[in-house]
Amino acid sequence: MKKVLSLAMVSAIMLTTLAACGGNNAGNETNKATNTPSENAASNKPGNGGGEEASKIIGEVVFLTNRTDMIDKEYVDYEKRFEEKYPGVDLKFEAILDYDKTLKIRIASGEFPDVVFTPTLPNNELANYFAPLDDIPFSGEIYFKDLKAHEGKMYGVSSGGSTVGIVYNKKAFEKAGITAVPKTYDEFLAAAQKLKDAGIVPLASNFKDKWPLDTWVYDIPTLIGEEPAHQNKRAETETPYTLDNAYGKSWGILRELYEKGFLEKDVNSTNWEQSKKDVASGDFGMYLLGNWVINQVIENGAASEDIGFFPFPSDNTGVAKAPLNPDFFYAVNKNGNVQAAKAFVQWMIEESGYDDFSGFIPTLKDKEPKLPQLAEFNTYSPKYFEPAQPVDAATQIQNKAQLDQAATVQEFVLTKDPQKVLDKVNAAWAKAKKDLGL
Amino acid sequence: MLSRLSFNTQKKLIIFLFVSVPLLLLLTFAYYPALELFRISFTSWDGLSPDRTWIGWDNYKEVFSNSSIFGVFKHNLAYFVVGIVQNILAIYFAVVLNSKLKGRNFFRLLLFLPYILNGVAVAYLFGYVFDTTNGSLNYLLGQLGFGALSETSWLGNGSFVNYTLASIGLWRFMGFNMVIYLAALQSIPSDLYEAASIDGANGWKQFVHITLPNIYKIIELNLFLTVTGALEVFDLPFVLTKGGPAGASETFVMKIIETAFQFNNYGLASAMSVVLLLFVVIVLSIQRFLLNRKGE
Predict the structure, then answer these.
(1) Tell me, what CATH number does A225's domain have?
(2) N or C: which end of chain A has fewer CB within 10 A?
(3) ipTM, interface predicted TM-score of the complex
């Protein structure tokens, strides 16, 4: 009896803890994918000569993907459709985990699949491994042409884009008596007040988890300064963070929301998984996150038509603005089956439907996104800001100064004296800049 | 082939072969990386580039001069304090469960069980317990009528977040300490207690004059485990608070990991690891010195 009892207890505890372990990754990873910082790579094995270009689209093409979940499902259909269009091609998919690290090792070994996602390499090293893709005849203009480019040649085509704005529960807005979506910052504050009065937490910040604050570091300053290169520009100054520049203003907004009680009751004890359920049920009103979160909210029990998406009004001008962030970039192995690989990249962008499946903004500029919330977002005709190529200098200083910007946002919001926090960060920045001689 | 050799040579050869395998493994996977750690700590290696520039003692100077690096050690103090409480509790439970108590095996199991659980799983579990608005602890406090107390932000208050985290460590490791004490207690011959009770010593006197001196070495061992544990704590704050609020629960090991893998500064991170190693040695030497002096 004793043994049975203890066994039952052990299994009960195991089950609950296991359940608690699941989840949490999806959001994190999707988020990471959109801001991959450039790093130096060790693998510097130059490719040996170019392969003969096949004049026809035939042969075997292997695509190395990170979507292990799509193997034996969507990819079967992709293979069938692609091979129907190009009968001479044998398309194969290979899915791996820990994508960036594994791919770098395989590139260093000299042999890697024909189509891959670009690893974190500085742009000037891309030409060593990948073929230029400028001659792919896309049916229209594409986004993010210059992000994985070097000396005028493009080596990566984004698999899709995402944007950041307010994801909101329409039922919650209705209940609070908000009839129109706020178009200015003052209207936004008024809406938040109404939500609060109706007993709804206005904005789920997920403050404790740090990574949801990245939008306040990367995206909102872009909108405030109308300058996507703000992270790079930090390298030019000794005081990149001031109360009256884009960072100070962006973080000031979060601080104001916190002081007015528009965030979670206790911002230091937030729960990401629970917040999705709360937004879905209408206990929380809004998220300020990327469009990737929409499907996750719907998975947590919201009806798709109850979830809306609008650009965050960072000022009172009434002009809708939104950042546009790329997802992974397709690249073609310059020693592989280049012609067929290029045809595959074009097909993935134009015909596969992968962008709609993933809820991306399509890479083709004229193609409308399928996700209804993104279509709604576009009805506000926001001005999109494409990101700038990351510059090494700023990243180097940031690493040398051991600066975790999301942690700084936390400190900025919680402290009594924000100026002091900025002074501290600026001092570390200036010292690191000097030590590096930049 | 071996039979041609003399018995002595055979013996030596066998011993050599048997010892060389574990030694080789030990050298490759423990000592070589450790030496490499010392070497990297004198360079400014970024983790990827093939060149490792020798920069002498600069990394060590940085560790000791930068208060945001060295200052986090004071967060470990909480784990230290709670670790002592943990050992006192462990001795108490060990003594209680060593007596003829009904269902004592069940209680032993109950107290030891948390130790078996995976550390990250435990951290998640307590994330739900200490949640301010939906947490079970605050719900319980509210139901018991402590209105104000049930609003406490257990993981969000910089002044006691480390104690909250350390209390999870207490829950988890107390049973383990207890089992070690229990083993020590069972090795004390019972005739000592019989003789003492004939002489008229009460329970407390028996504990102080028989039990404690007999488990002295084991207390030392458990304190050693507690001290190293307190200095190297990492998984609880990493999962539960990410070092927050505003860095109040950041520990030294978290700082090392951040330095190496977020800021790509492997040189400095290696130096920090070496400093941590030295710190453990120093604290343990002090502890041994104090305990041994008292023992004599």
Answers:
(1) 3.40.190.10
(2) N
(3) 0.75
